[in-house]
Amino acid sequence: MRLLIMGPPGAGKGTQAKLIAEHYGIPAISTGDIFRSMKTADTPLARQVRDIMNSGGYVSDDITNQIVAERLAEPDCEGGFLLDGYPRTLAQVETLDAALVGSGTPLDAVLALTADTDEVVARLLKRAEIEGRSDDNEDTIRVRLQTYADQTAPLLEVYGNHGLLVEVDGLGGIEEVSERVFAALDGKLAEGLVATAELVEDPS
Ligand code: AMP
């Protein structure tokens, strides 16, 4: 199963990514985690990544694409993978698509967790209170949600046009959501298998 996961802050993306990876026996690969772990190394690339992350910007497409390509070439990705936090730009979408189609291992699905904005705001405000994050107030949270929506909308459109998009409501209990996610992904995978079988039977 080759998957991407997308979702706004507060929709439980990290929790669901872990459960999906366990359920399908695939590694969950978060580019944010990769970059955070690189920050401590003392190499020119690590210093560059550290500076970009500290300024709140994006790591360049070239560096990001290369790091993901190297990670996907590792043996644990042979049976599939779940990418989290990548792709984030249209250039990254194109590079990933070309690499996967080139190796005959295209994506099976792009999972987008959806969540009602007011509910997510309430969730994040509660979390900020519990964790004492005073910089998380309703305004900053709404800006982050809007930024997510603006940045992902063009990517979701591309994947929607490719017939890969699977949208699942991310609100509810953890298990309730994961059951919904597994059912939706299994459905998508079955659809893909039927399409492949038809192509083999009738290659015209
Ligand atoms: P995240 O934990 O996904 O929010 O990522 C943390 C930081 O890592 C981001 O603010 C970016 O600086 C960097 N990063 C993660 N993924 C990407 C990506 N696909 N493209 C560019 N920068 C990224």
UniProtKB/TrEMBL annotation:
This protein's record includes keyword Nucleus: no
Broad EC category: transferase
Pathway terms, separated by semicolons: Purine metabolism; AMP biosynthesis via salvage pathway; AMP from ADP: step 1/1
Binding site for ATP: 10-15, 127, 172
EC number: 2.7.4.3
Annotated catalysed reactions: AMP + ATP = 2 ADP
InterPro entries: Adenylat/UMP-CMP_kin (IPR000850), Adenylat_kinase_CS (IPR033690), P-loop_NTPase (IPR027417)
SUPFAM superfamilies attached to this UniProt entry: P-loop containing nucleoside triphosphate hydrolases
Positions that bind AMP: 31, 36, 57-59, 85-88, 92, 133, 144
PROSITE patterns hit by this protein: ADENYLATE_KINASE
Main location as per UniProt: cytoplasm
Record's subcellular location: Cytoplasm
Keywords carried by this UniProt record: ATP-binding, Cytoplasm, Kinase, Nucleotide biosynthesis, Nucleotide-binding, Transferase
Pfam families found in the cross-reference section: ADK
GO CC term (a single one): cytoplasm
NCBIfam families reported in the protein's UniProt record: PRK00279.1-3, PRK14527.1, PRK14531.1, PRK14532.1
Function: Catalyzes the reversible transfer of the terminal phosphate group between ATP and AMP. Plays an important role in cellular energy homeostasis and in adenine nucleotide metabolism.
Comment field on protein domains: Consists of three domains, a large central CORE domain and two small peripheral domains, NMPbind and LID, which undergo movements during catalysis. The LID domain closes over the site of phosphoryl transfer upon ATP binding. Assembling and dissambling the active center during each catalytic cycle provides an effective means to prevent ATP hydrolysis.
Oligomeric and partner information: Monomer.
Record's protein name: Adenylate kinase
Organism expressing this protein natively: Microlunatus phosphovorus (strain ATCC 700054 / DSM 10555 / JCM 9379 / NBRC 101784 / NCIMB 13414 / VKM Ac-1990 / NM-1)
